Amino acid sequence: MRKRIIAVCCAALSLAACRTPAPASCAADARLLIEDRLFFGLSRPDGGAIDETQWNEFLREEVTPRFPQGLTVVDARGQWRNADGSVSREATRVLTLAHADDAANEAAVVAIAQAYKRRFAQEAVLRLKQPACASF
Hints:
Layout: H1 2-18, E1 31-41, H2 52-63, E2 72-81, E3 87-99, H3 103-120, E4 126-134
Antiparallel strand pairs: 1-3, 1-4, 2-3
């Protein structure tokens, strides 16, 4: 019985850790938005790389139509463990989006990640999502 209670408590804590707490309140000149950061590896499974022209085409066709109000892209270097256990190090683009917390924006972010994986044969696109107070 004790093991079962511990297991239930651990499961509850794990689920609670997945939820992102919203800020208690934003300043009067700010509003609550969602900040999404998507990490796009630029290496292809065949050993090639996604070049500047291909990346810009992806932004123009997949991202900008979904988030015309604005976005930020930063060049980065990253690494991650592939499904086969090997570690890949590669050039990366980090896309940051700030948007309202609604179903349409959620679907748009998911669609961007899916489109990138499909277009460039990627295993994954990392997404970090958190509430943020924003002012302009």
